[in-house]
Amino acid sequence: MEKLKVGILGATGMVGQRFISLLENHPWFEVSCVAASPRSAGKTYEEAVSGRWKMDTLIPEEVKNLIVVDVNDIRQVASSVDFVFSAVDMSKEEIRSIEEAYAKAETPVVSNNSAHRWTPDVPMVVPEINPEHFAVISSQKERLGTKRGFIAVKPNCSIQSYAPVLTAWREFEPYEVVVTTYQAISGAGKTFKDWPEMEGNIIPYIGGEEEKSELEPLRLWGKVLGGRIEKASEPVITSQCIRVPVLNGHTAAVFVKFRTNPTKDQLIDRINNFTGLPQELNLPGAPKQFIRYMDEDDRPQVRIDVDYENGMGISVGRLRKDTIYDWKFVGLSHNTVRGAAGGAILCAETLTAKGYIEKK
């Protein structure tokens, strides 16, 4: 298959850099355009990120010498790509406007941003959980007046370490959940070099994060009705989100009440055997095992478990009965791979496999 040409909007930021590193040697996609703010435009990509490349790997050779395009030059970007990933750093209104402009330029947008997560006809998808929500794209195209342009988004990084687990347990009817997330600094686009005051520190507030942690899972579990996504009403989730001195990896401590009475063995079995469309289709970025259960008392640990399945898998441990809730567990996910760029790439692979994204 001839590779699809991909543009990255916001290519110089941390998530944009993660997109570029993950797309190196991708079997289906090749980065052919990098777009960023006007101050980076006209430079080579290597020049534009000089002194602020935050990945552990080197800048891919095939991207180094690409000339950065002004992200506002929609016609130029759209004419050179089959679709774009969006990781722009702008206000919500500006993001909504620019992503819609790209879609109207007949260029599908797969976004890492939160701006369109609650637009009723924009699918917000974790491909193992709710790929059927992509069906709403046909209604969105009618609204936008497009033939091939649309927007699809992935959810917030903070929910990846527990929403898939609760999905695996849906048959047991979880109805009340308490979650505390311990979130890495890369979720704020930072390293310890940028944010030295985070070393040895904890900040008990991340703006907007608790609302996302409580509401976005309900949209994943919602239904497509009348050309829009209607969110589910249960389980009710309450959360606290805390910034901790970790570079990559969001950990969640979760308490769950169920309507039925599952055994520990049943819960572990559903975790270990949970699969979805990406596994059925054997997509390039799909983890072989999406969620794994770890028996050791001191796992999962960020340092040794965050890169499970190349950062696309979820690790779960410490499942035990609770005195107030029914069960409690700890989950871990990679916030910039599964939680950001990798999750968006898997969405694009699913959209490609289902015929929503194709060559122009």
Automatic annotation (TrEMBL):
List GO BP terms, alphabetically.
methionine biosynthetic process; threonine biosynthetic process
Query: Which residues constitute the signal peptide according to the record?
Result: none
- Family under the similarity heading: Belongs to the aspartate-semialdehyde dehydrogenase family.
From which organism does this entry originate? Blautia liquoris
Q: Which Pfam families match?
A: Semialdhyde_dh (PF01118), Semialdhyde_dhC (PF02774)
Active site residues per record: 157, 250
Which GO molecular-function terms appear in the entry?
A: aspartate-semialdehyde dehydrogenase activity; NAD binding; NADP binding; protein dimerization activity
Please state what the protein is called.
Aspartate-semialdehyde dehydrogenase
Under the heading SUPFAM superfamilies, the entry gives: Glyceraldehyde-3-phosphate dehydrogenase-like, C-terminal domain, NAD(P)-binding Rossmann-fold domains
Please give the SMART domains that the UniProt record associates with this protein: Semialdhyde_dh (SM00859)
Catalytic activity, EC = 1.2.1.11
Q: Which UniProt keywords apply?
A: NADP, Oxidoreductase
Show where the Semialdehyde dehydrogenase NAD-binding domain sits.
5-137
Q: Establish whether keyword Thylakoid is in the entry.
A: no
